[in-house]
Structures are given as C-alpha cells and as structure tokens.
Design a protein that fits this description.
Chain A: Keywords: ATP-binding, Nucleotide-binding. The complex is a heterodimer of chains A (about 325) and B (about 300). Chain A has about 325 residues and is of the alpha+beta class. Chain A is about 30% helix and about 25% strand. Classes of the chains: A alpha+beta (about 325), B alpha+beta (about 300). β3 of chain A pairs antiparallel with β8 of chain B.
Chain lengths: ~325, ~300
C-alpha cells in the first residue's frame, strides 16, 4: 500500500494520485490541506523500530505495510480547519502536528519521496553547489560576497554575469547591467550571489530512484521559467545525457538521500555540462505535460515496488570532504 | 586568526575568545558572517574549488585558522522593512553556511545544512543514531489515538512511573504530565497528535569536546561506562561540541537530551573552565595540525 501526503488541490499531488489510480496501485491519501483534523496517527519506537499507523476518514494504514510514501508539504495558505477553534490555536496545532508528521515520515521503513533532511541544502545555493561539484559535475563559477570590490573584480574577470538569490527564496535570474553595477555599494548591507553566465541549452533532469528523465529547454530567456513574462518562447523535448553526466545525476540524488529530484543543467555549445541547482521537491508536471515523459508513472512504480529503500540518513553529506573527479562529457 | 561567531551575550563565545587571547593567539569575535564592517567572499570555480575569505580591514585578508560557530547569525531588524529583513536574513544565513563549508580549517560545529537551519532538534531526531551507537533513549509515543495513549500511560504506571513528559516537537518545550493532567492531554489529542515520552530520573550533564567527555559532576560508574559510546555518537553526528543529558529510565541509563549548542550556564564553573579549555585546545590544536599538513 502507498501513502500520499499532500494537498488535494496541489496539481503535482493530484497527478501522482491520478497515475496511481490509472496503474491500479492502491494508496491512501492524507490530505495535508485538512490534516491534522479528521486524520489520525500513532507511532511508537520499540527497540529502535518504528511501528504504528496512519488513519483517514475511511482508511487505516499500518506503517509496516507501506511500500512507498509520496510527500508534498503545503504552505499555510488554503488549509482547512474546524470553525470552532480560534485561528491562533489552529496554527499552533497545525505546526505541532506537521512537525510530528515530518519526524514519523522521515523514519518510515520504506521508499519516501522525499525525506526532508536531504532537501535542506537547497536553502543555500552556494552550499549546494559545493555538494554538486563533489558529485562530479561542473558548476557555474560563482561569487557570494558583501564586498563591492570583490563583486567588481568577479564581473571584470567573467564578463557576462548574472545575479540570483543565495537562499532558497525564489528569485528571477537577471543579467548584471549598468543599473545593477551602480547598486553594488549596497552589498555592504548584505550579500548577493553572482555567477558567470553559462551559454547553451537548459536541460532539466528528473531522477526517480535510478531512472532519469532529461528534458531539453530551448529559450532565449535567461530564466526560462519566466520567459512568457518577457515575451519569449520556450520549446521542450526529451534529451539524452552523456553516461558520465547521467551517473553524476544519479550520484547527486543518492548523496543527498533523495529519491526524486529536479536537476538544472546546461549544455554549452562546446559540449560542457554545468549544474546549477538540485530541487528536492520538483514540480515535474510542467515538463511531463510538454514532453509526455512518463515521470509520474516512474514515481508510481517506485512507490508501488518500494524501489531501493533509502534509510533516513542521520546527517546529510558535508561538502568539504574529498572531491570526486569531474565527469567529462562522453558520447551522447 | 581564530574566528568566533555567535551572539554578543553568549558566554561561551566570550570565554573562548578570552582563552585564545590568554594563550597569545589572535582571535576575532563577530556576531554574524557577511555583516558590516567585515567583508566576506566565497569564490567557487567551475570544478567546485572554493576560496572563502574574510577581510576585517581594507585590503587585508585574514588567515582564518579555526572557527567556533555558535549561531547562524541574526541581522538587526532596525532600519529594515519586515519583508526585506526576512529576505536578507535568509540570504545571509545561506551565504554563511556555504562560506563555512568552504573553509579549509577546523570549524566547530562543522557546516551542515540540517543543523544550520534547525540547530535545536528533539531527541527523536537523534534517536536512530543514538540507538545505532548502542545508547538507549526513553520510550516515545506520538499519537492521536486515545486507546494508545491509555496503553502508554498504563505501561508506565505498571512500572511505578506516575506520569509522562508531554513534548512540543515544534517549540522544543516539555511539560510534566501528572495525574491531574491526563484529561488536558486527551483534550489536545482530539485535535492533533501528542508526543509523550517516558519520564526520567535526575539528569547528569556532560559535554563532549572532540574526543573528550567532560562530566558536570562525578558520574556514576554506569554513566561513566557510557563515555565511549557517547564519543562515538558525537563523531558519527559530526559534532565536535555537544551537550548531552543522561538519566535513568525504566530500562536503564538513557540519553534524554542532545544539544549541539551547549550552554556553559548549564554547567558548574569548574566544568565550564574545563569545557572552554578543551574547546580552545581542540580548535588551536586542529589548526596547528592543519598548518603542519600544509607545510609538509
């Protein structure tokens, strides 16, 4: 049996549920839009082993009988609560219940997409770059600084440079221009991240266990996610990865303890592959709908079979120890 | 130069900085990384080779020999719009984590994203690693089921334990549940799962600094025998500096609390001095070893 924990209004969760239905794989849906109200959970750790169950309006699921769990936590917006409770109490109950659920889900003895811990590196993009490089991929030359002089030197060294957020807070990637150069003195108020512009096609890779789905995105926009806003087109098609790049993508997922990630790559005109980011909670629906790549089917199959179960890592890997050789692009 | 990053009123930062100075070693104490007047930079090349630098004065890059990290740094909200402050706080913390991870010198506690963003974890987080190191933890139950709650209570009462600990996993607060409190716990449970833990006897505190275990008071032989396993736990958790509380539970001696940000205030003055000495020795010693490696 499969556990899906996510909001019923979340399109990605909805797609995973639809795919499980289509495959005939039984699952129970814990609606995080309503949880904890109307749902139950009991978990106990005896001699190191977790036992217990989840329950919903018309179901009860033993934790030992779960082959896979798919989780997408929600923000605070749109959550439903009993009308008889004051909002402050509701928030507190939801916070406490969510935290308890996170600990239990992280400890489930089955395939979990995804355990939370492995995704924490996404809150610091440069920290994640260090992990990505350790997994064997090239990364864009980057500078994080609160020193205007260092920023000017970096920009002079690399020519075309973009800037983007350092943290997990989403930002639109923008090129450095005269307006931004004039504002560099504001760096004294806090740091920013600068990256050498890497030309080429964006390639988004979704991992599902050891399976990979690579999508090539062709767009003139610097940040293709916002191409429409800038009046530019986006074309997508399935892509092949050189074996060494493919293996490095699998390695990143394994190193982070994440069964399903979205990896942002770029292939330069001279055949170099750069990795920009690893998304631990990818909204793959955009790519699946444009290309027909069976990402949700792969997720459904992994959840059903249990895949190669990854136990909860006690610690995520530290980026500073040992560095692997970098993957040279091989034949496509 | 040895760098101490932490809150201005943190007694551990103050004591370690003073100890470095007493040893005649150069030390710099900062409230946060990437904050004025210091200039921090992290330069990462295409292969991931990183250079982390710190300049305290114009045109002078410091040679950072070790770092003691006590907090991820908080930006003073004065003068900031609330949304801008939240953004800049996130940006600064993200930059600092990467900068620390890129340093080629001892960093205590080493940069780790999970602990950086949520340093104070409930015992539940450490449970599996403690168990793997052969260390017991108290029974823990998370439940929204009234019958399971009753069973947990009955099990404890049958063993002569009159109450339980009700734990907030989000707020890191514990309440003792006495005979009169079970009704309140049951009322809470009607809306959301509650976390209950088996109560424990009086705690004995200890601090692990590198491979050294510093007990707050003379430990009982059973507690002392646990030292090796505790050091193994700290090593596996990549914690060079950690505060741990041990106490008797029904089944024997257990770890009941783990804190990767030890507070000197929890310890006797004699133990605090030993902790600060050990911590300074660890940072300076590792820095010395690192220098020797680089020379050879």
């Amino acid at each position: 049996m499969i556990l899906v924990a996510g909001g019923i209004a979340d399109k990605v969760t909805e797609l995973v549920c639809s795919r499980l239905d289509a495959c005939g794989y039984p699952y129970c849906h814990l609606d995080l839009g309503r949880y904890p109200f109307g749902y139950g959970m009991s978990a106990q750790w005896n001699h190191g082993a977790l036992s217990g169950y989840f329950s919903g309006p018309d179901w009860r699921l033993d934790m030992q009988g779960i082959s896979g769990a798919y989780i997408r936590f929600l923000g605070q917006e749109g959550r439903i609560a009993p009308p008889d409770l004051p909002e402050a109490q509701v928030r507190e109950l939801q916070l406490e219940a969510d935290t308890a659920l996170m600990f239990v889900l992280d400890d489930l003895p089955c395939a979990v997409i995804n355990r939370l811990g492995g995704g924490m590196s996404n809150n610091s993009k440069p920290y994640q770059l260090l992990l990505i490089a350790k997994a064997g991929l090239l990364v864009p030359p980057s500078l994080v600084t609160n020193d205007p002089q260092a920023a000017r030197a970096f920009i002079a060294r690399h020519g075309k440079v973009i800037y983007k957020s350092t943290s997990g807070i989403r930002s639109v990637v923008r090129p450095m221009g005269d307006d931004q150069m004039a504002r560099l003195t504001l760096l004294r108020n806090g740091p920013a991240q600068f990256q050498a512009f890497v030309p080429g096609d964006n390639v988004r890779v979704h991992t599902v266990g050891d399976r990979l789905f690579a999508t090539r995105i062709r767009s003139e926009a610097i940040d293709y996610r916002y191409a429409g806003r800038d009046g530019m087109a986006v074309d997508m098609e399935p892509a092949d990865l050189p074996p060494t790049i493919a293996e490095a993508c699998r390695r990143i997922g394994r190193d982070l303890g994440l069964l399903h990630v979205g990896i942002d790559l770029k292939e330069t005109p001279d055949g170099q592959w750069y990795c920009f980011e690893v998304n631990p909670c990818p909204g793959f629906i955009y790519y699946e709908r444009h290309t027909g790549q069976p990402i949700s089917l792969a997720i459904a199959e992994l959840l059903h079979t249990g895949g190669a179960v990854q136990p909860r890592p006690c610690q995520t890997p530290a980026p500073s120890s040992g560095r692997r050789e970098h993957a040279a692009p091989g034949p496509a | 130069m040895h760098l101490v990053l932490g809150y201005p009123n943190d007694s551990c930062c103050t004591a370690v900085a003073a100890r470095f100075e007493a040893l005649g070693l150069s030390v710099c104490r900062l409230d946060a990384a990437f904050a004025e007047p210091a200039r921090f930079s992290l330069d990462i090349d295409a292969t991931g080779r990183a250079t982390a630098t710190l300049a305290l004065a114009e045109d002078r890059v410091e040679q950072v020999e070790s770092v003691l990290v006590r907090s991820s740094g908080a930006i003073d909200p004065a003068g900031w719009d609330a949304a801008d402050h939240a953004y800049m706080q996130a940006e600064t913390q993200a930059a600092a984590l990467a900068w620390l991870a890129a340093l080629d010198c001892p960093v205590v506690n080493g940069a780790n994203a999970e602990l950086w963003y949520r340093p104070r974890k409930p015992l539940l987080y450490w449970r599996s690693l403690l168990n793997a190191c052969g260390i017991r933890v108290p029974d823990i139950l998370i439940t929204s089921n009234a019958a399971d709650l009753q069973r947990f209570r009955a099990k404890l009462e049958a063993a002569g334990v009159p109450g339980a600990i009700c734990r907030s996993l989000a707020r890191h607060e514990d309440w003792l549940v006495g005979l009169d409190d079970w009704t309140g716990v049951a009322a809470l449970q009607r809306y959301a799962p509650v976390c209950l833990a088996e109560p424990h006897a009086t705690v004995t505190l200890l601090c692990i600094v590198g491979n050294t275990v510093i007990w707050d008071a003379e430990p009982l032989p059973a507690a002392s025998a646990l030292s090796e396993k505790l050091v193994q736990f700290a090593r596996c958790a990549n914690l060079g500096f950690v505060e741990i509380a041990v106490a008797e539970v029904r089944t024997g001696l257990a770890v009941v609390h783990v804190d990767p940000v030890p507070m000197l205030e929890h310890f006797s003055s004699a133990a605090s001095i030993r902790i600060v000495d050990a911590l300074t020795d660890l940072l300076a010693g590792q820095a010395h070893e690192r220098r020797k490696e680089m020379v050879s």
